[in-house]
Amino acid sequence: MTELTPREASLVALGAALASNCVPCVEHHVPLAKKNGLSDAEISAAIELADRIRQVPARKVLDAANSGLSAAAIPNEMASAGAGCADLPPTSDKRCC
Q1: Each residue of 34-92: pLDDT tens digit?
Q2: How far apart are CA 84 and CA 4, in angstroms?
Q3: Residue ranges per domain, the chain?
Q4: What is the rounded CA–CA span in Å between residue 92 and residue 81?
Q5: With left for phi above 0 and alpha for psi between -120 and 50, is residue 90 left, alpha or beta?
Q6: CA 40, CA 88: separation in Å to the nearest integer?
Q7: Residue 6, Cβ neighbours under 10 Å: how many?
Q8: pTM for this structure?
Q9: Backbone dihedral region of 68: left (phi > 0), alpha (psi from -120 to 50 degrees) or beta?
Q10: What one-character DSSP code corresponds to residue 92?
Q11: Among residues 35, 31, 40, 38, which one has the least CA distance to residue 11?
Q12: C-beta of residue 20 within 8 angstroms of C-beta of residue 50
């Protein structure tokens, strides 16, 4: 097996950090990617691609959760793109986010 270069490893790590929604990982791997020779433009392109890819399963999960419901049954705040439970008004003292 061929080893990855530090630049390649940084790109993989950035993608994994975004996919896992891990802020400390992103904050660690962005400066490390710069240290490993990636430009801001390359890092930005990697982050953009990773974000587009991670949104695919998120949309599919939302579609699965909403399958069988009429459009009127889906709350407006959940129907908007990017709405997460932390963005919704609390319905009780317990929330998942």
Answers
A1: 999 999 999 999 999 999 999 999 999 999 998 888 766 666 655 555 455 555 555 54
A2: 36
A3: 6-66
A4: 23
A5: beta
A6: 34
A7: 14
A8: 0.65
A9: left
A10: S
A11: 38
A12: no
Cα–Cα distance measured from residue 32 to residue 10, given in angstroms and rounded to the nearest whole number: 7
Expressed in angstroms, the distance from the first to the final Cα of the chain is: 41
3-state secondary structure (DSSP) of residue 54:
helix
- Rounded distance between C-alpha atoms, residue 25 and residue 54, angstroms: 16
Q: Position of tokens 């317990």?
A: 94
Q: Which contacts (CB < 8 Å, 24+ apart) does range 42-47 have?
A: 43/14, 46/11, 46/14, 46/15, 47/14, 47/18
Residue 93 has pLDDT above 60, yes or no: no
Cβ burial 54-83 (10 Å sphere, 16+ → b, else e): eeeeeeeeeeeeeeeeeeeeeeeeeeeeee
Q: To which residue do tokens 């660690």 refer?
A: 28
